Amino acid sequence: MYRYDAYDQRIVDERVAQFRDQTRRYLAGELTDDEFRPLRLQNGLYVQRHAPMLRVAIPYGLLSGRQLRTLAHIARKYDRGYAHFSTRQNIQYNWPALETVPDILADLASVQMHAIQTSGNCIRNITTDQFAGVAPDEIQDPRPWAEILRQWSTFHPEFAFLPRKFKIAVCGSREDRAVILVHDIGLQLTTNAAGETGFRVYVGGGLGRTPIIGSLIREFIEWQHVATYCEAVLRVYNRYGRRDNAYKARIKILVKALKPEVFAQKVDAEWAHLKDGPGTLTQAEVDRVSAHFRAPAYATLPALDADYGARRETDKAFSAWARRNVHGHKVPGYAAVTLSLKKTGVAPGDATADQMDIVADLAERYSLGELRVSHEQNLILADVRQADLVAVWQAARAAGLATPNIGLLTDIVCCPGGDFCSLANAKSIPIAQAIQQKFDDLDYLHDIGELDLNISGCMNSCGHHHVGHIGVLGVDKDGSEWYQISIGGSQGTAAALGDVIGPSFAADEVPGVVEKLIGTYLEQRTDEERFIDTVRRIGVAPFKTRVYGESANARKVANG
Amino acid sequence: MAKLIRGNAVVSDEWTLVALPVRDEPVKKQAGKAVLFKLTGEAAATDAEVAGVGIPGGKVIVPMSVWLGRHAELTARLAAGQLGVWLDSFEEPETLAASLHDINAFRVIAVNFPKFIDGRGFSVGRLLRERFGYRNELRAIGDVLRDQMFFFKRCGFDAYALRADRDAQDALAGLRDFSDPYQGAVDEPRPLFRRVARSA
């Protein structure tokens, strides 16, 4: 993984000093609330329902065991012994005191971490695929590019006060696990006819109030030019993005208003001035950064470890876990393992400090000292020998991290919702837990098969409900909480936005509605068809009829 | 009098800033908050408003719309080095550059930050320096605060009309928040990877 040199370290150290001084001035009354707000947000600090919430960056989801132990230490010392892994590969603390945040940042800086630009109207943490570097379908490792863009965007002087937040994702594999089509800029690594590396550039995707799939604005940008090209996109956005209405200020609104072709022309005109300038990347810099991500010295192992294979045949519980939570690896004899943060009864994405310590131990013992955070809010050990899988499973099971539900209905992606977040219209965690309880039977769960269920507590869509096969959105109606259900959304290469099935439901109705949707699927599916495939084939209507009855519109409408 | 920081020093300001008449516009509100921002390219003033602006003697910084609308009247003052111009955050430097042969005839160009969170002025600053070759004083005016000083400097500003209620020494410290930024900008066009040998 990327390790700081003296320059990187000084930048985060200077940030700690800067924020300590800003906090001091705020507490001394020298900065007003309005003046301090953008400053603290650019350090990931929100003022939430109960206390401030601090969002810490995990650049492209990669962590060392030592860093995770520090995150655990922070949870114990400054918070209530747990933290929440978010859908953007970050970690959030829900209870720190404002006065202690500079100290937390200093602790983070001691292990090469920070909270820079994790919120606010600036370029946010750059995200990528949680299987980067080990995925069998990888074209090229996206992490060096994510790191190069992280450095380019960190304290970029021109783009600290954009019209709205700005999210960039990089994908280096065939299957898009970084959801680049719903980012402000989505970069797909590719090669041209001459075999040179470059990027396909998508702009203006996003979820939130106005969900839009990104538009392809450039088929190929050579790797040398990726930073200057992004700079051109950002400059056009900074100048022309709407600032008169926060709900229309994302780049997607600008791209849509201008039409993607016209937006692309404006970017090209701007880029013509920046092309080949000093911001052009050099081979030396790409080599320097890439060296941090060089493949480790893997052992030469048989493609299938005999004991692992045998255990899968004989141990039903292990086999269920291996089927869902163990993933292919490009090196024979190795596997990637997902540790589930989706145990029934626990808020999706939450981990206790003790669990973090255990995962850090597992990473160091079995996975070359590193782990990843996925945007589905799970933790991944990316380099485990097959021969160690049983030991990893046993330790994970003892720590409540081995629920064999990855990619299944109870692997719910869920925002903190109304229990914590001051933006939320409705609670989301209790809905997730009620659904998990309803589908707690493992055989039933495995029979239902792959299903993405996403819950957001408001239209800001932190739970990515638009791209869930089943999406649940909390809405406010006359001061009470209702839930709108959509189906047919999907992430990945064939990203699509779900369709709302009809009027909203009260909280206690939601698990029953999900059960009806599943029932319809189980009746209608053909062999090998996943839930999403059935929805695509037969459409929304049969699901709707099952849920609302033939006289769907006769029902009292809570929210249209 | 408002404090002016020029380079690294607090100085007295010999220029008079000429404002546009304050218009009685309905305040747009959203979620209970006033929204003041105009879209880039919107007109700053009507012809009648431009015609009605009184311009005092001496060194003056006039609104871009006044410069564009009353060109003939101001040419002699420009030639005498007595004229500066200011752009609002929604005005385009392309328009200014196209309005005269040599942008360096202006001794001062100021860019207004109506609220510090309106970041368009940072792009305006870079364009004036990097695209249009402006070399004289580039001044940040408006909601100019300590915590944006570093960004102003990096985007080509070299004078800062600090908001009247703020401490100038404190603002000067803001110019030094970071020692070695990653990316190139006006003050140092080379990114870190071109300036130093970084080892893996």
Structure explained in plain terms:
The complex is a heterodimer of chains A (560) and B (200). Chain A is an alpha+beta fold. Chain A has 4 domains: 6-109, Sulfite Reductase Hemoprotein, domain 2 (Alpha-Beta Complex), CATH 3.90.480.20; 134-293, Sulfite Reductase Hemoprotein, domain 1; 306-398, Sulfite Reductase Hemoprotein, domain 2; 413-559, Sulfite Reductase Hemoprotein, domain 1. In chain A, 36% of the residues lie in helices and 16% in strands. In chain A, the strands form 4 sheets. In chain A, strands 1-2-5-4-13 form a 5-stranded antiparallel sheet. In chain A, helix 3 packs antiparallel against helix 12 (353-366) and helix 7 packs across helix 8 (260-274). The longest helix of chain A has 22 residues, at 6-27. Chain B has 200 residues and is of the alpha/beta class. Chain B has one domain: TIM Barrel, CATH 3.20.20. Helix content of chain B is 28%, strand content 20%. Chain B contains 8 helices and 10 strands. Chain B has an 8-stranded mixed sheet with strand order 2-1-10-9-8-7-6-3. Chain B has a two-stranded antiparallel ribbon with strand order 4-5. In chain B, strand 4 and strand 5 (33-35) form a beta hairpin. The longest helix of chain B is centred in the middle third of the chain and has 12 residues, at 120-131. The model of chain B has no long low-confidence stretch (mean pLDDT 93). Chains A and B meet through helix 1, helix 2, helix 5, helix 6 and helix 9 of A and helix 5, helix 6 and helix 8 of B.
